[in-house]
């Protein structure tokens, strides 16, 4: 294909590229810039185009890759990397350090509530909490499995009611 034929065909296909550029950029000016970059790259690399292949698909690929490259370049520019040795945060109000005190208070309250449970409920509940299976608890306590499940359910319900101040909405 001669340069003149390539230029003519490129001009014909560039009209169908504009909607694709608009879909990628979502901005008319950026779409025009992307279209211009695509046509320029296609024309300067016309020797890499093989006759008999789909020129339109080749142009769409150039446009998509140009858009991705420009987007990645923009993201890299917007990324700030601090290479200084001092690691002080200036005006960093969005950082917070928790000391774990609320978790300790909650854990103490949970343990108090468990200690207040009747042994009938506390023993199967704690065995289950430690990883025992229902069947193992039933065999160890010499109880029917339904009774074990019921007692664990009741213990959980009592604990839930006693600890409702910690409920997250």
Automatic annotation (TrEMBL):
InterPro entries: RNA_pol_sigma-70-like, RNA_pol_sigma-70_dom, RNA_pol_sigma70_r2, RNA_pol_sigma70_r4_t2, RNA_pol_sigma_r2, RNA_pol_sigma_r3/r4-like, WH-like_DNA-bd_sf
Domain RNA polymerase sigma-70 region: 11-73
Keyword Transcription regulation (UniProt): yes
Domain of life where this protein originates: Bacteria
UniProt domain RNA polymerase sigma factor 70 region 4 type: residue ranges: 109-158
Pfam families listed in its UniProt record: Sigma70_r2 (PF04542), Sigma70_r4_2 (PF08281)
Record's keyword terms, sorted: Sigma factor, Transcription, Transcription regulation
PANTHER family linked: RNA POLYMERASE ECF-TYPE SIGMA FACTO, RNA POLYMERASE SIGMA FACTOR RFAY-RELATED
Family recorded in the similarity comment: Belongs to the sigma-70 factor family. ECF subfamily.
Listed name of the protein: RNA polymerase sigma factor
């Amino acid at each position: 294909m001669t340069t003149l034929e390539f230029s003519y065909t490129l001009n014909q296909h560039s009209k169908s590229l504009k909607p694709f550029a608009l879909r990628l950029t979502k901005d008319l000016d950026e779409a025009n810039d992307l279209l211009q970059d695509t046509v320029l790259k296609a024309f300067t690399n016309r020797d890499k185009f093989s006759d008999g292949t789909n020129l339109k698909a080749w142009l769409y690929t150039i446009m998509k890759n140009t858009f991705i490259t420009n987007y990645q370049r923009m993201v890299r520019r917007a990324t700030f990397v601090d290479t200084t040795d001092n690691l002080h945060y200036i005006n960093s109000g969005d950082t917070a350090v928790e000391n774990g005190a609320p978790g300790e208070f909650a854990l103490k309250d949970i343990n108090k509530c468990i200690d207040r449970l009747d042994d009938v409920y506390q023993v199967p509940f704690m065995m289950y909490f430690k990883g025992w299976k229902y069947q193992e608890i039933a065999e160890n306590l010499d109880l029917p499995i339904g009774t074990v499940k019921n007692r664990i359910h009741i213990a959980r319900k009592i604990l839930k009611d006693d600890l409702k101040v910690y409920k997250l909405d």
